[in-house]
Amino acid sequence: MAAGASEERLAHLQAQVRKAARAMGRHGLVHAFGHVSARLNDTEFLVCAARPMGCLDADDQGTVVPVEGPLPQGVLGEVRLHQQIYKVRPDVGGICRILPARVIALSTMRLTPSARHGNGSYFAPHPPLWDDPQLVRDDDKAQAIAALLGGARAIVMRGNGAVVAGSSIEEAAGLSFLLEEAAALELTVRAAGGGQGGTLLSDAEASARAVSTGGIFERLWEFLTHGDPEQSGSDRANIR
Questions:
Q1: Residues 6+ apart with CB under 8 A from 208
Q2: Which residue range is the domain that position 207 belongs to?
Q3: How many other C-beta atoms are found inside a 10 Å radius of the C-beta of residue 122?
Q4: Tell me, what CATH number does 48's domain have?
């Protein structure tokens, strides 16, 4: 058991991580690759099993990973991204490493979704771009990406998907869906000739719109996990 994490909390997060992982696969935000995690405490987090996320079974246990130190055996190399973000962002409680098609398409033009509507407001004015298509398998590169992310909710890597950070694994999963929705709108506007001439949210509009009140992320979580084999009636109340 992880130090400082009760058996009940660890079991709860194991299930939430599996549900988030399957949700990413169910909604086309990952395929064979990608991973999600949830913070356990100041020094540890739980990452999903190293399998295609949509294929995770109820008995697939995640691995407890130290925020600082070598990755445990069997943990995927890019999980060091999670390490470095948790290290510098105490506000982050969940991370999704995703490969959404529309976000990737935009990134190959060195673009990320602009804040054009409500879904995009959470990433205003737009997510930062890591302009390198290579896998992130060393600590120096992971540290640089965490630094470029700064206080943002997501960072896009050119031709290599995105990393999304939320206050919880449930929020990170919801933000992952919203990021791909923002990318879909961006591509549609640009295909119609809108480009930078289209309407963008002002800083004030984006700040006012990017709220978590009113059950926004609770409803997103219910939508994303609908039909999951481990879904329970208490899921909405358990978002934290």
A1: none
A2: 7-238
A3: 25
A4: 3.40.225.10
